[in-house]
Amino acid sequence: MSNVVVLDNGGGLIKAGHGGERDPTVVVPNCLYRPLSSKKFLHPSPLSSITSEDLTSAAVRRPIDRGYLINPDLERDIWSHLFSSLLHVNPSTSSLLLTEPLFSLPSIQRSTDELVFEDFGFNSLFVADSPSLVHLYEASHRPDGLVSKAQCSLVVDCGFSFTHAAPVFQNFTLNYAVKRIDLGGKALTNYLKELVSYRAVNVMDETFIMDDVKEKLCFVSLDPERDLQMARKPGRQNLLRCTYVLPDGVSDTKGFVKDSEAAQRYLALTDGVSRRPVEARKEMDQTEAAEKSEDRRRIDLTKTEFDLTNERFLVPEMIFQPADLGMNEAGLAECIVRAVNSCHPYLHPVLYESIILTGGSTLFPRFAKRLEKDLRPLVPDDYHVKITTQEDPILGVWRGGSLLASSPDFESICVTKAEYEELGSARSRKRFFH
Amino acid sequence: MDDDSANPLRRMSSRTRKVAPKMAAALGSTDNRNQAALARLEALENDNAGIETVEINDDDEASLDDDDQVYMQKKLAKGTKRKTRQAKALENARKAPRTFLELLHEANLEALPPHVPSYLRAAVGPPSSTSRRHFCSVCGFTANYTCVTCGMRFCSCRCQNIHNDTRCLKFVA
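Output (structure tokens, whole complex):
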């Protein structure tokens, strides 16, 4: 009995593979999609494979709403496709390590258990929460770091559905201190969709394309005030403007950034030093020429491309100040402070020094830098603030799960099928101490 | 958040304006604005644009199995009793996936004693400072002005005109 399936069932992406391996075998969107050309909902193909799927205007069905599994029937479809044609495992001879969001409702836990044991018939199940897995991975990854010495860390998981700041101590998430912001990658994509649809082209149906736009073009601003000023400048002086070309469905089915070099120009803004005037003037000359031709081109291509300027940083900005969106919630830095303050005072200095960022939404460039900038004024002077970004924030949770699954006593902490049948969902769940 | 209209010190013009009764009702309460704002936030969690349509009737058709035909035939063969429309609707309502908020409401987390951590208590809570930056709803830059009709923000005359022409919720109801 060595076959453990590790399944990080995220709202956006499923990360699945065999316990003990370094990387998951498949990463696949946790949804079904229906392209315009089809009547049926189809399974999306894994991210690693190169496909020519036409995702334009595809309708999406997701089994997970606000981070929690609400549609078990749909999830069964997705999982059975995953187990049979992507992972090639036989559930009845394997164990399952499944991640579940914090504070799952009893009714949701029950339907998850039914899905695992009754529909798929797994041998045994272990339900883990993502912060503890991230902690486990980081602690074993850097054996002489503070995280593993103090056995304590603060995991900031900024994922698809929501953002959690969760203190972890001795591999257990301190659930009384966890704080949540109801903003994640999905809300950000939808916000970007709304902005672009109002200002340029109607893209309200283009979930997948706007995801791509967000991933490629959005970044976190270190100084939004200054960047707003920069975004006002006309023409090529504007370091923030860049153009995204929508797919036309004929020559390409994927959108792309028109000038990817231009998209990176905002990086020059960090230094705060203006470039030498000669260089600037030379660029100006080029600019005018380029602008004219560009303007002419724009006239006949208006339908297929749009410009982004301030949207590029105002969208991720919402995680740091949800109030700007009209949400009555504190920003990420304050969220962290509140989570830490709910813990024992002895833990405070250690927690501030071992902040781990994970989750796909932390992939925005400069996320960690900005967080540190926001957090520093809120933390007492004599504490250090140290923010670590995981090397692969999307897979971090899965890797922790893989480690746990390969540990020798994994079998003993699982709930077996027999136990589930004997005790039922609620009582067998007590074993996981959530 | 916008408490401008609640401010008693705010000077109002004494000029009487003629407004349609429906408009007056919409203007009178800040509730509508709040509702519109909440609806906008809700919309950020939608999977697809527009109204979420749960396609229950198409479910058989849209199911992934390729044995639809067989299934339909079986159904016809078995079809001794034809369901009434009402019974069908009831069954659909039972089968339909419920939203997370419904499940949350059902779980009745408010009844738990205050020391038990739960979904509701994990929410981060309101920000410590009430200051809020406002961005123009048209162009995205800092907005200093508020639309008197619907409460959205704009930064300049130009943006105001665009806002009035396109997005202003004249009757927020």
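Chain B touches chain A through 49 residues (CB under 8 Å).
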